[in-house]
Amino acid sequence: MDRSDLIISHQKKLSKRYKQLIEQAYNLRQTDSALSDISEYKALKLLEKLNRLKYLSRNPLKSTP
Known about the structure:
Layout: H1 3-28, H2 33-57
Helix pairs in contact: 1-2
C-alpha cells in the first residue's frame, strides 16, 4: 500500500468520525449544550486534520518544459 492509499483511507476514517461528531453535537444541542460544544470542538479539530490530509493527497501539477 503506497502513501496516497494510506492518506485516502485515513481521510475516509476521519471523515466518518467527523460526521458522527457533528450529528452528535446537533442532537445534543437542545438537551446538553456543554456536550454539544465538546463534540463540535472535536469535529472542528478533525476537520483541520482532514484539510491537512487533503493538501497532502493532492496531485502535484506537472509543469511543461
